[in-house]
Amino acid sequence: TYEMHPSEPRWTHIALRVTDMDATVAWFTEFTPLALIDRREDDLGCGAWLGMEGQTNNPFILVLAQFFEGSDPFAGAPLATLAPFAHLGMELPNKQDVDDIAAKASAAECLAMPPTMMPEPIGYICMLRDPDGNMVEFSWDQGVYATLAERWGSV
After folding, report:
1. Taking the alpha carbons of 63, 64, 68, 69 in that order, is the dihedral positive or negative?
2. What is the spatial distance between Cα 51 and Cα 63, in angstroms, rounded to a whole number?
3. What are the CA-CA distances from residue 126 to residues 114, 136, 137, 145 (Å)?
4. Which of 69, 114, 141, 152 qualifies as a FRET site for 98, CA 20 to 30 Å off?
């Protein structure tokens, strides 16, 4: 067991079942601000944790799991993906950042939705598709960051 635990309940992660751990880790570290925190392997398969560097007070990570053939407890179930609307969201500091990530994704053939100005509070967004088809949204002026700062102080 670990010696450190949260002082109150915390939302800590979302988990995705993947088909190619190496490709998925490479995609997320190339296209998002997430960094590889931990990678493990056991008899059932391999896993990886990705998160924002330096976040320790309110950590939130993306957990990736790839089960080995013959040891997948979910064998036979379809691989669930976040799509077409379900997605992971990244808020970017500048509108140009959305255009830049969209151009990079277009060149890599993983752009699912080009930059589009949506009604409030959605903002300016584009959507990318990871190697398993999960949607990842990149937004500017969505207001998540600003709303939390207003409600709870500095974020």
Report:
1. positive
2. 9
3. 5, 8, 6, 18
4. 152
pLDDT one-digit tens code per residue, 13-63: 999 999 999 999 999 999 999 999 999 999 999 999 999 988 677 788 999
> What does the alpha-carbon distance between residue 27 and residue 4 come to, in Å, rounded to a whole number?
31
Q: pLDDT higher for 65 or 154?
A: 65
The token pair at 76 is 């036979």
Are 45 and 24 in contact, with CB atoms under 8 Å apart?
A: no
How far, CA to CA in Å, does 91 sit from each of 88, 97, 100?
10, 10, 14
Peptide bond before residue 33 is cis, with ω within 30 degrees of 0:
no
Strands 111-118 and 135-140: unpaired
Overall pTM > 0.70: yes
C-alpha–C-alpha distance, residues 103 and 141, integer Å: 19
Spatial separation of the C-alpha atoms in residues 125 and 123, rounded to whole Å: 6
Q: How far apart are CA 9 and CA 93, in angstroms?
A: 29
